[in-house]
Amino acid sequence: MTERIITTDQDVTEGLSHITSTCPRMAYAQSLTGPLPLRRRPDGFSQLLSAIVSQQVSVAAARAIWAKMQAARLTGPRKVLWASEEELRAAGLSRQKLRYAKALAEARIDYKALRDAPTEEVVKTLTQVPGIGVWTAEIYAMFSLGRADVFAPGDLALQEAARLLYDLPERPKERHLRDMAAAWSPWRAVAARQLWAYYHVAKDREGIR
Q1: 55 and 134 share a domain?
Q2: Is 155 annotated as catalytic?
Q3: Other residues' Cβ atoms within 10 Å of the Cβ of residue 130
């Protein structure tokens, strides 16, 4: 695999220098947000299970459920595979999410192999699991695998940040934003970090909720 991997803050700084030197709007956003976070996460089963837990619930609710899962030691594939429906429900999972959790455990994904796989293969592999969509797979590639040139155009905050930063008449659809992101290659993951940071600044300024 020849894809650039983001492992340090210096990598983010390098990518940001490239993006801001080629795009005045990104340079403006950077002037408002300051340094960007590294946002690297571990890879593996538990990260994807946590993503499933977090779907369609508030951050606070997701944290509470995950704390229950950890207390019950239900964050590994074998434990989830062997757990009863009652045990998973008691930890806070809905019936749909426990099916997703079981499917993820049954998939027996080779997470070490994904570290060296092309991003397209990572997304294809992960999205074969029920409950994991393209957005989740791209976020995993971006933060758990550190891929420097991955973007997640289906993210609503990225769409809204792009609308505000580029003064668009409406929030860009996923395909439109994916096309826009091509200009930020080979550092699209850094561009995503910048847009997320800008979104929070703009939200505070404009009272967006």
Answers
A1: yes
A2: yes
A3: 15
Q: Is the Cβ–Cβ distance between 29 and 193 less than 8 Å?
A: no
**Distance from C-alpha of 163 to C-alpha of 191, rounded to nearest angstrom:** 14
Catalytic residue among 43, 155, 167, 179: 155
Confidence of residue 152 (pLDDT cuts 50, 70, 90): very high
Q: Is 199 within the bounds of a domain?
A: yes
For 178, the domain range is: 9-40+149-206
Torsion of CA 115, 116, 120, 122, to 10 degrees: -30
> SS3 letters for 63-95?
HHHHHHHHHCCCCCHHHHHHCCHHHHHHCCCCH
Of the listed ranges 7-16, 78-87, 196-205, the one predicted with least confidence: 196-205
